[in-house]
UniProtKB/TrEMBL annotation:
Residues 265-388 are annotated as: Disordered. Residues 275-284, 341-364 have a biased composition (Acidic residues). Gene3D superfamilies: Aldolase class I (3.20.20.70). InterPro entries: Aldolase_TIM, GH, GH114_TIM-barrel. It catalyses: Hydrolysis of terminal, non-reducing alpha-D-galactose residues in alpha-D-galactosides, including galactose oligosaccharides, galactomannans and galactolipids. Residues 285-317 have a biased composition (Low complexity). Its EC number is 3.2.1.22. Pfam families: Glyco_hydro_114 (PF03537). This is alpha-galactosidase.
Amino acid sequence: MSFSINSTRGQTQIRTKALAFCAVSVTLVLFCLGSWSSAPSHAVYSRVFKRATQASEPAIWQPEAGIKWQIQLANAVEDIALGADVYDIDMFDNDAGKIADIHKTGAKVICYFSAGTYEDWRPDANKFSQSDFGSELPDWPGERWLNLRSTGIRSIMQTRLDLAKQKGCDGVDPDNIDAYGNENGLGLTEADSILYLNWLSSEAHSRGMSIGLKNGGDIISSVIEKMQWSVNEQCAQYDECDTYAVFTQVGKPVFHIEYVDEMDGGKADSSGDNDSNDSGDSGDESASGTSSSSSASTTNGISVSSASTSGASSAVSDETKSTGMKSTNDAASGNEQNSGADDDSDDDDDESDDGDDDDNDSDDQTTTHDKNTPGSGRKSRDCNIRRAPKLKARGVTVSQKTLACKAKSADRFSTVIKNMNLDAWVQYC
């Protein structure tokens, strides 16, 4: 059947088709316009959202590799005139006022606490549950491994992080995260430490604080992306610095500690020559060298100033040369620091006898810190350095300083030489 174009029915049909065509055309045009404009709109939205998100997230401090630092975990910090860029201090022993004072010098503050062990002397000790305790740490009364998987432990650590934030800490130094390398009594593994440390990192970052890895060389590859630095003890002594150098390779610092009393006296130079203490140390040794408690109260007398550090290697005293690790003032004041002190004074001219005395001193120290020797639990030595016996050694031999400061792969490390009880005394490379 056909219709004439001039008929009413034919004209109606033409109009209907025309309207349908227009509708389809308009739809296609709108669709194309929408597709063309959606990409820029989405990009703008993404940029705005990203800015809003970044504005709400706290900035995380990332220190540079090689900066100068000081660590003092024995008592409250008193000497803040060292010219250090970073102070690693005990979170419980220092209040917000002390941290504010350090900030006034332009330095940053890392707050130390044990994240992997229970310590019965801490103010929050009553918050822990016996069910979360593992084995006792040998030779460290009042300290036990903690169950890193426990929600109760994590709740306590969140409270500690809140305290660190309230006090103004720029970052935190959670110790004893390497239970996997010890007889912990809880079956804790590397995987547990990795999960726990990554969780701690997220919690610290959410509060605007940085965080670092304490020792834990076995798990570096699994946590380094979330860590801002490494704190390492004795990598030079145990020839492990290459393990931690991956931090400096990506621009993150390794805060490196070598302990003067842990170094083998047999490695000392045959002449017995010592690097003297920095000028601030040697002058007041008779007053401050007898105990760490007195050293903490007279830190200006025993700690290294930035000005004196540069001349440390050249300021060598004759008496220090003859007595190995013992300072001249200790000898003058009659302090009985080591069992071989009298023999040293009698045999100053006999180098071989001095060498024997140094060995005896080393043996005495090894007995005192038997847990910290390679043969008595390699990883256990890293833990609980806060309650070590009060050490008196203030001298550093040339070979000891060379061992600490010239270690393979450690050229960009931030190295300090300390006593095991980590009081205010420090020597820099």
